[in-house]
Amino acid sequence: METRRKRLAQARKAAGLSQEKLAEHLRLHPGTIHRWESWGREPRGYVLPKLAHLLGVTREELDEMLAEGRDPSRTPGPMRRRPGSRAAQREAESVATPAEGGDAGDPAP
After folding, report:
1. Within a domain: residue 83?
2. What is the pLDDT of residues 33-49, one digit of tens each?
3. Which of 22, 37, 43, 97 lies 20 to 30 A from 109 at CA?
4. Is residue 33 part of a domain?
């Protein structure tokens, strides 16, 4: 499967940035940029706003560039909570506890 993101590399070059310079601006290892462009790896979310700014594109345009080489088998699934974590307990409580005001099917008094 071809995962090379040509538009991402073209945007970087159009902005006058080498992989090394882009990595320096983002405070990342240069190999990380190479993996984004050549192997279809995903940039972390916190990098996206600055990456879009450095490339001179909107977030929507950046998302399109990243989708170009996305491997569907690596698409993340729904977020799962670690069993026993506070977040998992709160989530379970909110599902188990009916909303205040009674059941929506109850007739009004």
Report:
1. no
2. 999 998 878 899 999 99
3. 97
4. yes
Question: Can you give the CATH number for the domain in which 52 is found?
Answer: 1.10.260.40
Q: Tokens 């069993």 correspond to what residue?
A: 83
Whole-angstrom distance, CA of residue 41 vs CA of residue 35: 6
Task: Using a cut of 0.70, tell me whether the model's pTM lies above it.
Answer: no
Nearest 5°: phi and psi at 17?
A: -115, 135
Please spell the DSSP secondary structure of 7-40, one letter per residue: HHHHHHHHTT--HHHHHHHHT--HHHHHHHHHS-
**Do residues 53 and 22 make contact, with C-beta atoms less than 8 angstroms apart?**
no
Q: How far is residue 34's CA from residue 82's CA, in Å, rounded to a whole number?
A: 32
The answer on pLDDT for 17 being more than 90 is yes
